[in-house]
Amino acid sequence: MEILDVNKHESGRIWQRKASSSENGLIVTISHTTSNAFSLQGRSIRFLHAAFNTLGEAFVASDHQGNLYLFDLTKNKFSLIQKIGTPSTALAFCLRRKNEVLVALADYSLRCYDVESHELVSWMKGHDSAIHCISIHASGRYALTSSNTVIQLWDLDTFTRKRTLNGAQTVGIQRGFFLPLSNTIITCFKDDSIFAWDSESLQCKYQLPIPPDDGKNPHYRDLATPRDGRILVAGGRSRFLHVWNLETKNLLHVIQLPTKIRIVKQVEFVSDSFDGGSSQTLGVLAQDGALRFIDVHTCKLLLDIGGNEQMINSMVFSPNGRYIVTMMDNGNINVYSTPALTQLNKPPAPVVKAVIDDRPGSKSSTKSSLSLSGSKKINKDKVVTRKIPRNINGRKESPSVGEQDMSSSWTVPDSGLESELPEGLSRTRLMSILRGYGEYPSKYRMFIWRSLLKLPENHSCYSSLVDKGVHSAYVRVHEEYPIKSRKLLRVLQRTLSSLAHWSAIFGEVDYLPLLVFPFVKLFQNNQLICFEMVASILVNWCQHWFEYFPNPPVNVLGMVENVVAHHDKKLMQHFVNYNVTSKMYAWPLLQTLMSEVLTKEEWLRVWDNVFSNHPSFLLMVVVAYVTSSRKALLQCTEKEDFEYFFHNRNALDINAVIREAYRLQENTPADIHPKRMLEPFAPLTKGQYPVFNKYPKFVVDYQVQERERIRQEELEYLRQRQIAREMKEQTEQRQAEETAFYRQQDLMLDAEDQRRKMIAEEETKLLDQRRRLQAMKREVHLRELQLLDAARRRHLHYQQNQREAELRRLDDEIERKALLREQETEAAVEDADIKALELQAQKEMLQQDMIRDELQTSFKQRTELNTHRQQQELEGDLFRRTLDVMQEVDLDSQRIAQEDLAKVQNKRQNLEKEEEVCLKTRLDDMERELDRVKITRRALENKEREDELQTLTRQLENKENDKAASAMSKLRQWKVQAAKEDNRRAQMLNHSSRDILSRSEDESFEKLREIRRPQARRPMSSITSNTSTEAEDTEFSTPRNDSGPSIERKRATFEKREMELMSEVRDLRKRLAGRRNKVPPEYPTSDSNTSLQ
């Protein structure tokens, strides 16, 4: 045993001398330690994962620091591929590009490295958790990566993600992998459900049943399937292994492990190991670190490695079954040799030998003879050694195994096959079953066929044939054989292409699809078995078929004719009479292997017997089919009838045909027996398929050359036709483009004319719209002017109403004041009367006092005093009335002046607004309607009329101003005259007051002064009336010392004057009322609006 430390070594040799295994089968131990300056022993870096390549001769391993190593066990060397720096979680080699390896890292990424150039090929990302499993499809194109939450399908040609299979949020994913040699994906979820999915559509195909276990869940941790993909084994947190048959989707059985096993960590099948390569041995790694090897069919424990001292964490088996790589608990890698383990547990040399007599004519086995080991042979007869099987349990031999019955070791001399089969089946028992029931059990038929034919299952060799792709001869097989099932067509095309790549003759045989199709239909889920089954038939049962290619095998058909002629001469003579050769009655049956004339059950029964006998038995079955149908054939007289008979199913008892075939095989003379010309059965060799060259190579080469030449000519013809088609298409396209161009030009001209017409129509419509718009604008403008005029009139009416209301208010105020003044006057008169009464009373008192002395003088004075008082009262009354009239005149004058001023202001505002409107109209007309002369002329005429209107307005304003100025001058003159009258009246009043004072007595004078004192307080400037002045002049025109007129005459004069004054006041009021009711003159605004319209 060698120990290899890869510390500080990027390459080197694995072992220094010739590799040899130790007592326990260990070849080499690989470790990775780092030196430490502070300790004598270095720190060990743990190896985590490993993976073998497709040939099983080299493996890659990664350690905890992210170093990736390649160990080539055949070339005895190792090398450092890459220092990744991140620990890996899974490894796998690619199948198509065998120098590439996929590495899943702890950062959830997936990388691809080239182990030869040590370069990074691709870097893929897409997982959100660590990848714990990588599975490669059998074609090598796809890879499946599994994590706890998702399974992703990657295309290894483009290194892109193709599909994603998500698990439920509450249920995680335990494992996912490709089923070998199929497009099925097996997934196991953490709720122990196992599903099968189609890798192309990701549709669920079926679900495997979970066996009940008293309410306990198995908690599966790992799944395993052999290379043929027929069974599936699952193990988990229990000591039970569940085994399913994937063909029937049923649970086969449950394997109970020893009681000390509580958890199954890993399971994996061993290829080409202990039991002859049938992949029935399962490696089981438990929690105790021991790796046990168990036969899944017999449930026997074969051997175990590892244990408490050397605990194993994980293991990897090589595809060829020669090596076992285990990752140990201490971080090292142990490499075991499977042959060494087998040799250690191999039973001793057999001591029982069977002597077989091979002399001609012998029909049964000779008697057995016993001899001791090491003794000489009795004669030169053939000796077949029967190995006594031995079950290994803990590397101890079971004593009961070697005591088996010797009678089961017998051979069939005519079969050409050894009696011992790889799976441990006995040919004697199989033949007894076949002769007793006429067929094998349908449940185990395929297994028995594979065992009888000893199929080698050369996966790598078959993969190399498949990798060559579709053969040129079968590219269009779907056109000649339209099969509804695309999967079946794909398998048929792949199988035919593999056969053509194996031998060139099979690319030229036109009937090969008919021969292959029945087996393709049977083994469509296992293409490797299908190919090897057909290859075994072509090598053994189709001997000498291709020696006269491309003609039918004349020699084989001659054998059939000889046997038919020997056993049924009448039928042979009938064939000769109607010119029916073996090419017509035997060759159709051989081309299709009788699948055209038999049902599926009959065909399977026939081939159960064919596979169990000498290859010549197939010809005997053909002859038996012909002879068993002699009655129907003797009645046929036309070639078409014979052809129809041998190309369609007929009502025959297949058991009678098989019995007849056995009879013919036993009773046919040796000189014409086909086995004289045919060699015994020879299985396909392991590792590499045999060379098939039993055909006229020059003919096949010539046909291949001719086919290639025809193919090249056809390709050239197709290329020329394609070029001509392309040129024709280009010409047609150009013609179509020219036609389309001219059509487009015509359409463009028509469209242009149509557009012109449309533009003309649109212009006409636009002109009409403009006219309507202009009319609408004109109407809107007129409406605006009307609204403005109405607003102005409303404003004037409002102002007039306001002024009338103000006038009414002023009239009411004047009337109220006049009423108050009258009331005051009446009160004053009443006071004066009271005072007069008082004075009268005083006067009476004075008169009573002076009655005796001055009666006449007192009476005079009282009369004058009364007259003077009345005169004063009249003067005060006239004075107040004159004052009121003057105030009313002043108010009327002010109101008229204010109304004139408001009118002038309104006129000015209206003119400004009209000017603004005209200016806006002129600007709009100048900007938009410059080319319209009529509108411009109208606008100019409107402007002239507006100027005339403005001139008239100014003239009216000047006239009003002149009138106002003349009125103001008259008012000033009136005021001057009034002032003069006031002065004159004041002088006159002063003179009269002096006269009165000089004549009245002191007491009466004082009382009279008190009576006149309120009137003296009134301003003299308010007396402006000419009539009052004249009245005063008239009233005081009497001389001061004139006492001639009587009191009655003066009273009449005063009353007359009062009437005149009242008439003048009424005239003044009428004039004021006439001036208020006078309508102001109409301004020519409406004329200007009419002119604008």
UniProtKB/TrEMBL annotation:
Which top-level group of life is the source organism from?
Answer: Eukaryota
Q: Identify the main location.
A: cytoplasm
Please note every region of biased composition (Basic and acidic residues): 992-1013, 1047-1067
Protein location: Cytoplasm, Cytoskeleton, Cilium basal body; Cytoplasm, Cytoskeleton, Microtubule organizing center, Centrosome, Centriolar satellite
**Could you tell me what this protein does?**
Molecular adapter which is involved in cilium biogenesis. Part of a functional complex including OFD1 a centriolar protein involved in cilium assembly. Could regulate the cAMP-dependent phosphorylation of OFD1, and its subsequent ubiquitination by PJA2 which ultimately leads to its proteasomal degradation.
Q: State where composition is biased (Basic residues).
A: 1068-1078
One cellular component term (GO) for this entry is: ciliary basal body
Q: Where is the Rab-GAP TBC domain?
A: 439-614
Which SMART domains does the UniProt entry name for this protein? WD40 (SM00320)
A molecular-function term among this protein's GO annotations: molecular adaptor activity
Q: Which InterPro entries match?
A: Quinoprotein_ADH-like_sf, Rab-GAP-TBC_dom, Rab-GAP_TBC_sf, TBC1_cilium_biogenesis, WD40/YVTN_repeat-like_dom_sf, WD40_rpt
Keyword Cytoplasm tagged: yes
Protein name in the entry: TBC1 domain family member 31
PROSITE patterns associated with the record: TBC_RABGAP, WD_REPEATS_2
PANTHER family attached to this UniProt entry: TBC1 DOMAIN FAMILY MEMBER 31, WD REPEAT CONTAINING PROTEIN 3 WDR3
Q: Where is this region: Disordered?
A: 390-419, 953-1093
Return the WD repeat spans. 124-164
Alphabetical keyword list: Cell projection, Cilium biogenesis/degradation, Coiled coil, Cytoplasm, Cytoskeleton, Repeat, WD repeat
Q: Which residues form a coiled coil?
A: 820-849
* A biological-process GO annotation: cilium assembly
